[in-house]
Amino acid sequence: MYSYDLNTNLANIQNMLAEHVIKKDDFKELKIIAGVDVSFSQDNQAVAAAVLIDLYNLEIIETIIQEVELLFPYKSGFLGFREANAMVSVLNGLKRDYDVVMINGHGVLHPRGFGLASQVGVMIDKPTLGVAKRLIVGIHIVEGNHFPELIIFTNEILGAYLNGFYVSIGHKISLKTAIELFNDTSIFKTPEPIRQAHILATQAFKKILD
DNA sequence: GCGACAG
DNA sequence: ATCTTGTCGC
Hints:
31% of the residues lie in helices and 28% in strands. It is built from 5 helices and 8 strands. The protein binds 2 DNA strands through residues 37-42, 46, 74-79, 82-83, 104-106, 109-110, 115-116, 130, 132-138, 166, 202, 205.
């Protein structure tokens, strides 16, 4: 499915859209944070889940699950083309509004500065941040003298490595705020928004397999 | 050429 | 991502 041309075209699209990413805080308030995740196994049958969490007590105030179809195969560096649509779809199904979305995957900490979190952010035009367990090959790390470690790529600070996770700007948020949000929602190893969303998506996916 | 490769 | 059993530890 991935021909050289398709790869090049998708990369070009990412390069162009990356210019629309806003790497600074651009919001009124940060009270309700959304977490999204997609669960799947072999085929393209999948379940997307989203949770809304109150930033001040980390309690869930709304949840939603939705059956979705993944139209693209997974390929490192192009995760957005596989999961962004599903995430936007499930987020649009939420009744309440939210201020920011935490996403499993990278934001601007990406070869072309346009990871899944940035793609979703640009699509919904809201603040997003990316949280991932591993770096994409090609990203270089520069250890800082102070906590948190700073990560650099093409001479620009793009993210931070915190408590086993790589945190980066998705859209309309600064790295500083993204880091604060990561810390403020981490009661367990994994931040609540994505932890709860993952639990929801996984349970729903297994249930729907009946 | 070979292996690695966000989820 | 998911498939899977046990195991270490609070």
